[in-house]
Design brief:
The complex is a heterodimer.
Chain A (H helix, E strand, L loop, with lengths): L2 H4 L3 H5 L7 H12 L2 H6 L3 H7 L28 E4 L7 E4 L17 E3 L12 E6 L5 E4 H4 L5 E8 L17 H5 L2 E10 H8 L7 E6 L6 E5 H5 L3 E6 L2 E2 L9 E3 L12 E7 L14 E2 L5 E3 L7 E6 L10 E10 L5 E7 L7 E2 L1 E2 L9 E9 L4 E9 L8 H8 L12 E4 L5 E4 L2
Parallel strand pairs in A: 4-13
Antiparallel strand pairs in A: 1-2, 2-3, 4-5, 6-7, 7-10, 8-9, 8-13, 10-11, 10-12, 14-15, 16-17, 17-21, 18-19, 18-22, 20-21, 22-23, 23-24
Chain B lengths: L10 H25 L12 E2 L2 H7 L14 E3 H11 L1 H4 L35 H10 L10 H14 L8 E3 H6 L8 E3 L4
Antiparallel strand pairs in B: 2-3
Helix pairs in contact in B: 3-6, 5-6
Classes of the chains: A alpha+beta, B mainly alpha.
């Protein structure tokens, strides 16, 4: 196909006939949305012949770079930020899930939740201190930890407050990432916490570890000893490179499958104790008030959840035709076994394809080719994990929890496609 | 609950153990070079012993039973003045809220719509106030308050919530003794 043919309008491309494959339509659509075709479309007819040899094939390219950056054409793919007006370091930024594919989150787009900014830590001045109910109180430098046996573990981290606008009476209109993007997935590499606990000689009475960060909030939380001795990781690397400052450089805890506040960044101290410390962030916050007036506390595990990232609000279907439905599912309890997609608001469901390998406590990419007939419809996805747990409907979740729990919202998400091809967030 | 530091070995014992550990570890390594699997399951033992004084200097955790509370004391009156100077701009007059959380004055409790989650209606432990203020507040200058000032602010916030009286003074003993109204308001879900 010539580039000039690619310069057809989007509706031309989408009007293509039935003998065309969905893959070709997808190629056309992506070529156009990537911007190159739009540029070519603006060329005068006499220039189109020259466009067969694009300008970047006629001159040497840019030199090497010490650290690569995304294309300038992708500059809109960013974390959107929401922070406290009076304390700029208290807030969050969302992973733009609607702009990403696959299962791993680029390091520069991993979501952030900070309680008082990102500390700029010199690793030479940072140590991990362990004390309390141990035979030996010990401290470790970062260089020390780099000499320990390491493991790599892929997992998502999700803030317990992710998706919390779902409790609102009215559906918030925002891109998928700005509703559900306090979740990201990385490969974390570091020292199993169990190895360090073993060296310190954990006392049999120790039931909790009180973890503390070296940030300006000295953020602290309590972690049950079972998880600490299980798959807890002292992470030094994220997706192959040392942690980014906003993700805990030089050292963070990673507790796979558990709410993000427990994966303490800038980890500085672990105190072994018989009881939880009852920190502010495990009592006043990260607890879920029920209609009864009682509150759920220590709700660590992230339950199964899914969201369609494409198409999603802010995106636009140009004309009836084939579109890929693509989304993410994850469960803190293990492997995603099944993701179903509905295009009729939950009346009927069809199994989506799961990208392999499907890994426990990781983002699982699901995809389904879909032919939009041009009518208004509601897209949904529903995840089932290895325990058999099925992602609940919003009415079912609210019937169980009320509307004021704030944390751990994991209900089915609904996107409405209008006849004009625009998408919006609805409750259905 | 035993005190979290109760089993901490003395500095002398630690030094003795560390001294013993060194040669043992070295010989284990030598042995490992001859016979062992390529990937050790244990660490190389690079931790440095922490003295009790070092632990005391870094440990700012305060537990519900009062473990970790430092010496010192503060009055409600002192706390009121400190609050006006250091806290009110964000937390509002008498803890009424602003750019930061509402801290007092819960009007319709936890079953209202929306519920009123304040220190008085929601927080299960008074010791959490001391722990959190000392480590985190104020955000513009964390760790700038003295222990006496943290006791005073804790006292003022508890008095605003009707939990202690305006003439009261707080210290480690009296703070640990306070039972908060919502002490039994929480259901542990995934804890053990």
């Amino acid at each position: 196909m010539h580039a000039s043919e690619e310069a057809q309008t989007e509706s031309d491309a989408s009007r293509s006939t039935d003998q065309e494959t969905p893959a070709r339509r997808e190629f056309l659509r992506r070529g156009i949305t990537a911007g190159g075709a739009a540029v070519l479309a603006g060329l005068a007819p006499e220039s189109r012949a020259a466009a067969a040899t694009p300008q970047w094939m006629t001159r040497p390219g840019q030199p090497f770079s010490n650290y690569g950056l995304p294309s300038p054409h992708e500059k809109a793919v960013i974390r959107l930020i929401a922070a406290n007006s009076a304390v700029s370091g208290n807030g969050l930024s969302w992973t733009p899930l609607h702009d990403l594919e696959g299962t791993l989150t680029p390091n520069g787009l991993h979501f952030e939740r900070h309680h008082n900014g990102v500390p700029q830590i010199d690793p030479a001045g940072h140590r991990l201190y362990l004390h309390g109910l141990f035979e030996r109180s010990l401290s470790f430098g970062v260089d020390d930890l780099l000499r320990y046996p390491m493991v790599s573990q892929q997992c998502f981290i999700e803030c317990g407050g992710n998706s919390n606008s779902g409790w609102n009476e009215e559906p918030l209109q925002a891109p998928a990432g700005s509703l559900h993007g306090l979740a990201s997935c990385s490969e974390w590499t570091g020292v199993p916490l169990s190895v360090i606990l073993e060296e310190c000689g954990l006392h049999p009475d120790a039931q909790w570890l009180i973890a503390e960060g070296a940030d300006a909030a000295a953020m602290n939380v309590s972690i049950p000893i079972g998880k600490a001795r299980g798959d807890a990781l002292l992470a030094l690397y994220q997706n192959g490179e040392r942690l980014r400052p906003e993700n805990g450089y030089p050292l963070r805890l990673v507790l796979p499958g558990w709410e993000g506040v427990l994966s303490v960044k800038w980890l500085r101290r672990l105190q072994a104790a018989t009881e939880p410390v009852m920190a502010r962030n495990e009592t006043a916050r990260y607890t879920e008030l029920l209609p009864s007036g009682k509150a759920r506390q220590f709700t660590f595990v992230i339950e199964a959840k899914s969201v369609i990232t494409r198409p999603s609000p802010g995106q636009h279907l140009a004309a009836p035709g084939w579109y890929p439905i693509s989304g993410l599912a994850w469960s803190g309890r293990g492997v995603i076994k099944r993701v179903e997609v509905s295009t009729d608001g939950g009346k009927s469901w069809i199994d989506a394809n799961l990208q392999t390998p499907v890994l426990p406590r990781c983002f699982t990419r699901f995809r389904l080719p879909w032919r939009w007939n041009g009518e208004s419809c509601i897209l949904q996805s529903r995840a089932t994990d290895e325990t058999g747990y099925v992602q609940p409907t919003r009415p079912a979740l609210i019937a169980e929890r009320g509307r004021h729990g704030y944390f751990h919202y994991n209900a089915i998400v609904s996107w409405e496609v209008s006849e004009d091809g625009s998408l919006s967030h609805v409750y259905a | 609950m035993s005190m979290p530091e109760s089993s901490a070995p003395s500095a002398a014992r630690l030094e003795e153990r560390t001294a013993r550990r060194g040669p043992q570890f070295a010989s284990a390594l030598l042995l490992g070079l001859l016979t062992a699997p390529a990937f050790p399951v244990a660490g190389p033992g690079l931790g440095q012993a922490l003295s009790a004084a070092e632990v005391a200097a870094i440990n700012i955790n305060v537990f519900p039973n009062g473990a970790g509370l430092p010496p010192g004391r503060g009055t409600v009156a002192d706390g009121q003045a400190l609050y006006a100077a250091r806290c009110e701009a964000c937390h509002g007059i008498r803890g009424s809220g602003g750019s930061a959380d509402e801290l007092a004055g819960g009007a319709h409790g936890l079953r209202g719509n929306p519920p009123d989650k304040t220190i008085g209606t929601y927080w299960p432990y008074a010791t959490t106030l001391f722990d959190y203020i000392r480590r985190s507040m104020p955000p513009t200058a964390p760790r700038s308050l003295s222990d006496d000032e943290v006791y005073a602010l804790t006292a003022y916030l508890l008095s605003l919530n009707g939990i202690i009286h305006g003439g009261d003074t707080l210290d480690a003993v009296s703070l640990a003794r306070i039972r908060m109204p919502n002490r039994d308001g929480f259901i542990p879900v995934d804890a053990r």
